[in-house]
């Protein structure tokens, strides 16, 4: 078992290089991996998902890769939340110019697919699915 370097125990291993390695990995995730996820297209994200264990370790892709991919639209992402932010009504604008309003549905949304939930005439309605590559912008609606 590795322990911190201990002057009282001259045989204890020095973990300073391990701490440097973990700091380097955290920096790589913040500086390269998360920004890549925010800009990658869906085919690239799907390929990365297949090799996610080698890329990011044991972190599940739905709680890292796909959340980071959706974080290109900041209103959908809250650091530390294990899913899309469902708190606010949003307007999704697609590449074709169409606009759709509703609340992000974190349970119905999956990977590269966004589903919006809303109500019409007192009944629940679902809008979507909207593929990540189709979405041009997502903005919070303030009333």
Word description of this protein:
With 143 residues, the protein is of the alpha+beta class. The protein has one domain. Helices cover 31% and strands 24% of the residues. The protein is built from 4 helices and 5 strands, in the order ααααβββββ. A 5-stranded antiparallel β-sheet has the order 4-3-2-1-5, with no helix packed on it. A hairpin with a 2-residue loop joins strand 3 and strand 4 (123-131). The longest helix is centred in the first third of the chain and has 24 residues, at 16-39. Residues 1-5 have low confidence and may be disordered.
How big is the Rg? Answer: 20 Å
Distance between the termini: 57 Å
Shape: elongated
The string of secondary-structure elements, in order, is HHHHEEEEE
Spans of 5+ residues with little confidence (pLDDT < 50)? Answer: 1-5
Oligomeric organization of the protein chains? single chain
Provide the residue-averaged pLDDT.
88
What percent of residues adopt helix (DSSP H or I)? 25-40%
Please describe the biggest sheet, giving its number of strands, its sense, and whether it closes into a barrel: 5 strands, antiparallel
The main sheet orders its strands as 4-3-2-1-5
| Domains (count) | 1
* Beta-strand fraction estimate: 15-25%
The number of distinct β-strands equals 5
Structural class: alpha+beta
Give the number of helices: 4
List keywords for this structure.
143 residues; alpha+beta; five-stranded antiparallel β-sheet; 31% helix; 24% strand
Quick take:
The chain has 143 residues and is α+β, with helices and mostly antiparallel strands. It contains four helices and five strands. It has one domain.
